[in-house]
Backbone:
């Protein structure tokens, strides 16, 4: 009888699993009742070097954890974290499993992880499961971020479990498969530091340098260079988030990726009407993670990262603390420089225009006071920059409750903007201003339909948010800001 060859989808390696316990603990998925495939990201699979894609039934078995993927060796990662400022020495993957790493087409090592696959040694009181809503939200938002070129974990697959999970009420369960440059967080370093085992900490830091920041190895102090590199990546990331109105919602140190990717989407949301103090997450009652607080919080998280690295660094005593503090302070100038660059792009100005900062500041205050939708404003401004017709001007002025002020602003801006005459700047302006974002009410609509068994709205929204500069009729419909009745005021993390 001829042997039936197993289709090889991913060629797994297991470098993280060579690190000492308890950074990685072997553990298995708990099977679910009836896995059914919702979505599989074939282009990402291709990027990961997948050779042969099996049928949806096999995919559902694999990406629910019901059947081990060939070559996978599952384990949970240990990490600690400051949650809303309070230190918890042991969190870890309570409902996630690392299957292994894959070397992608660009030669980069990427983690493949199941989320919602059952209890692990780190589950504490949790059920190890995930409701369908947060799985769909993470799929949509992370793939939108990727389409915008914003560093992020990716969505490889989503599967319904055929089981219910109980949160505020019973909800359908699901398993999400995500791909990350790694799942190493500031909290992973805090966990290693809390073990009071310098060899463990050093093994982790060396792994990270080798994997994410190989140039640091040649620095006078590789661990200081590691800190510098992570600070730079985070500064850039937060500036990119804010340029599209993204509010992460739970910027705990355990949700802060060392590779500088957006990770753990939870109750994230995009700001609609511009408001620096905006918060959507139901659990962020102190408004710690409000839109405009994000840079200061990222910097605070990086200071916690720096503290864990101090024992490995070369200098000692006050001089060491001073050096590390200077590196953390540099976050501010790196963030500002990146933000300025993005603001010039968003406004269609020359790359180093000295007017970018004052013009953006005054537009932000107009958006705030005039109750303007951030995404719609920049989209309309892009249209007006490319073709300054009365129609485009009216469309823009219709977005504010204070048209006279905006008219005055437009005159100052027009004297500066170059996007319409300079093809490079015009491409930069378009690419900085998406037509569509995954709006909260649209994401909610998709989740509501899925809870009724209808996944068509999910696939439609996914198709348009992953082409965020397209202007199809469908995209325009789904891009429109929420009406008063449609507004989603609160989001939940679903844990
Ligand atoms: P999160 O808020 O999703 O970033 O999770 C914070 C911590 O709680 C992490 O250690 C998670 O693994 C854990 N956790 C969240 N939800 C669950 C769950 N349903 N079961 C077990 N652990 C969970
Ligand atoms: Mg988390």
Residues:
């Amino acid at each position: 009888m001829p042997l039936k060859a197993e289709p090889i989808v991913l060629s797994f390696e297991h470098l993280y699993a060579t690190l000492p316990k308890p950074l990685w603990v072997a553990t298995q998925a708990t099977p679910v009742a009836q896995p059914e495939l919702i979505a599989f990201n074939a282009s990402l699979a291709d990027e990961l070097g997948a050779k042969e894609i099996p049928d949806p039934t096999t995919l559902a078995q694999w990406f629910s954890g019901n059947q081990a993927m060939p070559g996978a060796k599952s384990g949970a990662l240990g990490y600690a974290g400051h949650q809303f400022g309070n230190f918890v020495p042991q969190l870890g993957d309570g409902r996630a499993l690392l299957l292994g790493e894959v070397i992608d087409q660009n030669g980069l090592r990427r983690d493949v992880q199941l989320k919602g696959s059952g209890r692990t040694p780190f589950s504490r009181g949790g059920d190890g499961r995930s409701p369908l809503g947060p799985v769909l939200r993470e799929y949509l938002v992370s793939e939108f971020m990727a389409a915008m070129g914003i560093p992020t974990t990716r969505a490889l697959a989503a599967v319904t479990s055929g089981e219910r999970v109980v949160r505020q009420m019973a909800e359908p369960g699901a398993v999400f498969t995500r791909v990350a440059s790694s799942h190493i967080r500031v909290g992973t370093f805090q966990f290693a530091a809390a073990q009071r085992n310098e060899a463990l900490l050093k093994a982790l830091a060396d792994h990270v340098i080798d994997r994410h920041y190989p140039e640091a190895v040649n620095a006078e102090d590789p661990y200081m260079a590691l800190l510098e590199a992570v600070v730079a990546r985070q500064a850039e990331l937060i500036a990119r988030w804010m340029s599209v109105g993204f509010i992460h919602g739970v910027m705990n140190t355990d949700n802060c990726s060392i590779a500088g990717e957006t990770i753990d989407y939870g109750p994230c949301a995009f700001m609609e009407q511009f408001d620096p103090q905006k918060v959507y997450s139901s659990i962020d009652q102190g408004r710690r993670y409000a839109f405009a607080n994000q840079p200061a919080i990222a910097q605070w998280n990086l200071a916690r990262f720096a503290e864990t690295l101090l024992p490995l660094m070369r200098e000692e005593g006050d001089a060491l603390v001073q050096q590390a503090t200077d590196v953390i302070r540099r976050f501010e100038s790196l963030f500002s420089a990146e933000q300025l660059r993005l603001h010039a792009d968003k406004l269609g100005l020359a790359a180093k225009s000295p007017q970018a900062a004052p013009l953006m500041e005054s537009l932000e205050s107009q958006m705030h006071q005039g109750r303007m939708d951030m995404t719609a404003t920049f989209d309309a401004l892009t249209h007006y920059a490319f073709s300054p017709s009365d129609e485009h001007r009216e469309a823009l002025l219709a977005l504010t409750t204070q048209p006279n002020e905006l008219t005055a602003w437009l005159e100052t801006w027009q004297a500066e903007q170059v996007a319409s005459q300079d093809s490079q700047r015009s491409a930069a302006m378009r690419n900085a201003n998406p037509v569509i974002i995954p709006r909260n009410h649209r994401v909610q609509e998709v989740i509501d339909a899925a809870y009724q068994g209808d996944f068509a709205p999910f696939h439609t929204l996914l198709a348009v948010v992953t082409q965020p500069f397209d202007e199809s009729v469908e995209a325009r419909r789904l891009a429109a800001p929420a009406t008063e009745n449609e507004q989603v005021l609160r989001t939940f993390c679903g844990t």
Remarks:
- The chain has a mean pLDDT of 96.
- Residues 254-255, 264 surround magnesium ion (ligand 2) (CB under 6 Å).
- The radius of gyration is 23 Å.
- The chain has three domains: 16-184, 187-344, 345-432.
